[in-house]
Amino acid sequence: MDSLVLYAVVLAVLAAFLWHVARQDEFFRVSIRKGRVLVIRGRIPAGYLADLRDVGRHVERGTVRAVKDSGGALLVLSASIDGVTAQRMRNSFSLYPVVKLRAAPPLAHPNIGQVLGIEWLAWRLAPPIE
Questions:
Q1: Positive or negative: CA dihedral 106, 34, 19, 127
Q2: Euclidean distance between CA atoms 96 and 44, whole angstroms
Q3: Most CB within 10 Å of its CB: which of 45, 64, 69, 73?
């Protein structure tokens, strides 16, 4: 019985480690639902977040991620974001070099979903629309 508990603990630690390593290449992850933008994890320059709020106001549902790419950054968008909107997001993103992405401030008051990077929980705990 003790070995079963040990295996479960080792498996849980390994899963947490792999989960952490898989997210190391991300600068930020933003979710858009019904035109509302929510930072799920990472640091995002305030100017680009404002641009996403402007450009994404007509997006029903989507995800925007900035990932590390051979010394630079690459914007990865979900397929649910139409081509014109995606291009506007990429154009705006090109104004922010990696230095600005790394220097972006952390979220001021993240909820537990944002701390853990769990999208559904972050949305559930997000403040209501004013």
A1: positive
A2: 10
A3: 64
Q: Which tokens in the block code for residue 108?
A: 């001021």
* DSSP H or E stretch at residue 51: helix 46-55
pLDDT tens digits, 27-80: 999 999 999 999 999 999 999 999 999 999 999 999 999 999 887 899 999 999
Cα–Cα distance between 7 and 13 in angstroms, integer?
10
Instruction: Tell me how far apart the alpha carbons of residues 40 and 63 are, in angstroms, rounded to a whole number.
Output: 10
Residue 71: DSSP 8-state: T
Q: How many whole angstroms separate alpha carbon 86 and alpha carbon 93?
A: 10
pLDDT band for position 128 (50/70/90)? confident
Extract the tokens encoding 120.
Answer: 């559904």
By C-alpha distance, which of 116, 124, 130, 95 is closest to 40?
116
Which residues fall within 8 angstroms of residue 101, CB to CB, at 6 or more apart?
27, 28, 43, 44, 45, 66, 73
